[in-house]
Amino acid sequence: MAAEKMLPQIFKFVDQNVESYKALLKEAVAIPSVSCDPKYRKECIRMAHWMQNKLKEVGASTELRDVGFQTIDGNEIQLPPVVVGSLGNDPKKNTICVYGHLDVQPALKSDGWESEPFELVERDNKLYGRGATDDKGPVLGWLHAINAYKGIGEELPVNLKFIFECMEESGSEGLDELLMEKLKPEGFFDTVDYVCISDNYWLGTTKPCITYGLRGISYYFLEVECAKMDLHSGVYGGTVHEAMSDLIYLMNTLVDKDGKILITDIYKSVAPLLESEKKLYNSIDFDPEAYRKSIEAHKLPHNGVKEELLMHRWRFPSLSLHGIEGAAFQPGAKTVIPGKVIGKFSIRIVPNQEPEEVEKLVFDYIHKKWAERGSPNKMRITAQSGRAWTENPDHPHYQAAARATRLIYQTEPDMSREGGSIPVTITLQEASGRNVLLLPMGAGDDMAHSQNEKLNVRNYIEGIKLFAAYLYEVGKLPK
């Protein structure tokens, strides 16, 4: 059937099945697949089995791939299996490998949620629930797009392969090894032509985008431990050099009030700004004043200049302080002096910055500052990292996605980079040797890792249509 007839029928089918799409998302959100908390590990495993069954229902062949165990507090805990599947094997069709994740960040109603986080609730045409936009809604969008083709009696225009994990929010443990040491040698990627991920968001709330770059990330754990002395003496006489004082000193040397990273040579290897890239920033639809109001800031850094704001969000490294383990945090007056504290911070790294190089710069800087401190306490720093990723937005794969986006939203999508990190992106690029594209479903105000995470009903339903149109457009690309 020609596109001018087939796609409108698909879109009509989608519009007729909105309530069933909401119901399935409600079912998925109800599984509290929090990957960072061992007490929810069985729920993560249940989530993987649930997804496998849903893939089978659309006709995919599937398997659950074991990725071993992880050690938490000295205990060996099973990692959730990775759902691997395929649908169609027509050698005349292009094959897309779709990646998504089914685990979520922790959430409690007491954190400030207006409704129970693991119960999908619709308010003002928004679907609230943990995982609604990150990433259960987008993952289910692929199932709905497949069913829409089936619903009107049409074959899929492409073959599909699936990789869905339940550990993305906790570093994707075990996934790289599965992709590079098992699936790649087994030939899983041999027939793959393109890779698509939908685990990111529009820059704002109204303009669709396609993402061609992500920052990498290096997590750091900075541990300071007191010598074994009577910690009460710190209260009474100042005879103990407190671990907390040392840690605050070190963390205060990392970044200045304007967000500039103070670590020596950290900016040295950042990729130079090309004129072609600079032009992309000029054309992106982003209103600094509207952004300032949306985050309730009295002023923006970099004098509120659009291009500078976007570049510091996407293409320059940034450092964030996350928290301190071991300190007394309960309300009320406390005079507890912790014997050991662990400070957590991260650096978002960008193209041309290699994690090993950045880690060495950080370690050298911290050890230099520690020597200057002259403390009798013990200090240790460790890290875990993932690389940055970029693609060419002029690639035919991106142009196919742009055509699909124009069809659904009647506007030209922005080609944007993203300030966040999805470490598996570069692994999929290396495992497949193919072009990787990030096609967002959610909006920039979805609060993915925060309270009251939501997915707009419009984004969910139009996103399903977008995925269906994207499959069609990629199906037209030369084999």
Automatic annotation (TrEMBL):
Its cofactor is Mn(2+). Gene3D superfamilies: 3.30.70.360, Zn peptidases (3.40.630.10). Keywords: Hydrolase, Manganese, Metal-binding, Metalloprotease, Protease. Mn(2+) 1 binds at D134, E169, H449. The active site is at D103, E168. Substrate binds at D199, H232, T335, R348, S421, H449. InterPro entries: ArgE/DapE_CS, CNDP/DUG1, Cyt/Met_Dipeptidase, Peptidase_M20, Peptidase_M20_dimer. Coiled coil: none annotated. PROSITE patterns: ARGE_DAPE_CPG2_2. GO terms for biological process: proteolysis. Mn(2+) 2 binds at H101, D134, D199. The keyword Zinc-finger does not apply. Residues 213-370 form the Peptidase M20 dimerisation domain. Binds 2 manganese ions per subunit. Signal peptide: none annotated. GO terms for molecular function: metal ion binding; metallodipeptidase activity. The record marks H232 as: Important for catalytic activity. Belongs to the peptidase M20A family. This is Peptidase M20 dimerisation domain-containing protein. It comes from Euphydryas editha (Edith's checkerspot).
